Amino acid sequence: MDRPKIYVYVTASLDGRISLAPNLTLSNADKINLDKYPRFFNLFGDWKAFEDEIKEIYRPDTFMEGSNMVMFEGQEIESLPKYNENSEYLYQDYLPIEIVKHPKRKFWLAIVDGKGRIRYGYKGNEDNEQSHILHLVSHNVAPEYLVFLQKNRIPYLISGKERVDLKKILSKMYHKLNIKSILTTSAGKLSGALIREDLLDEIIVLINPVIIGGFKTPILFASPELNPPTILPSKLKLISSKVNDDDSILVRYKVISNSHLHS
Fold first, then answer.
1. Coil, strand, or helix at residue 66?
2. Which residues pair with 17 in a beta bridge?
3. Which of 9, 78, 143, 195 can bridge 87 by disulfide, Cβ–Cβ 3.0-4.6 Å?
4. Phi/psi at 112 (5° precision)
5. Closest-CA residue to 117 (of 65, 165, 77)
6. How far apart are CA 12 and CA 51, in angstroms?
7. For the chain, domain boundaries
8. Contact by Cβ (8 Å): 51, 9
9. CA 72-227-258 angle, 5° bins
10. 1-61+183-263 — its CATH code?
């Protein structure tokens, strides 16, 4: 299948935790205040330096995240005006040519939002004229949500009945938008789905010398349990490793495809 290369890069504790507690997102990460505990305040290391290094290696044209990076499970969503007209035209890819071909746009900010929860109207180019939001949605979303995206001139690709069909949507990204290299920091459910569907190419983890624990705190890969021969462990091959001065370890692994074992 023709699709973009996908690289997940995350910082995690030694026990594979990617957050300090359940239901922490990019927008409410200050819920836990560690100012009083300087030994732990920077336990996830120098993220910007790590990110800059990864961008330089992979030169992405798209950054992709799951909706849980913006909203936590169960969070109330903004209501939208009811749409009672013919909605068939809405359930097609919406790619305004003036956005797709805009000369200043250099990369996409893609968000997997199969339930249509992200309703802020954020376009990405407000902060950086070289970027633009791209929603990845399923046919399960309400027509009101698609009307909202179109009124706000927010492009979207649509695939899958109940949830986003990642294989098909990635193929669309490749063929319709010429997307070749995707970086994602969405460990947890999105990365779990990608690894289970044999869609991840490399995994880059900055392992920090700390144990967080917890039964509900998000982990690196949240995915269905193994079920041989249908669902097998994902084998990896080490690309590189580096021990940093702060005792963290940066590891890069190539994912060895299991597709031949699923046939």
1. strand
2. 219
3. 143
4. -80, 110
5. 77
6. 14
7. 1-61+183-263, 62-179
8. yes
9. 90
10. 3.40.430.10
Tell me if 9 sits within 8 A of 183, measured CB to CB: yes
Both tokens assigned to 88: 């068939």
DSSP state of 17: B
Q: How far apart are CA 102 and CA 139, in angstroms?
A: 27
CA dist 190 to 39, 66, 122, 200, 243, Å?
31, 6, 21, 11, 28
Instruction: For the full predicted model, state whether its pTM sits above 0.90.
Output: no
Nearest to 6 by CA among 243, 229, 171: 171
Joined together, the tokens standing for residue 259 give 């597709």
For residue 20 the two structure tokens come to: 């300090």
| Tokens (6 digits) for 104 | 């200043």
Q: 62-179: same fold as 1-61+183-263?
A: no
Task: Say how many residues make up the chain.
Answer: 263
All residues at 6 or more sequence positions from 59 whose CB lies less than 8 Å from its CB, including other chains: 181
pLDDT in tens, 63-101: 999 987 777 777 788 899 999 999 999 999 999 999 999
Give the containing element (helix H, strand E) for 33: none
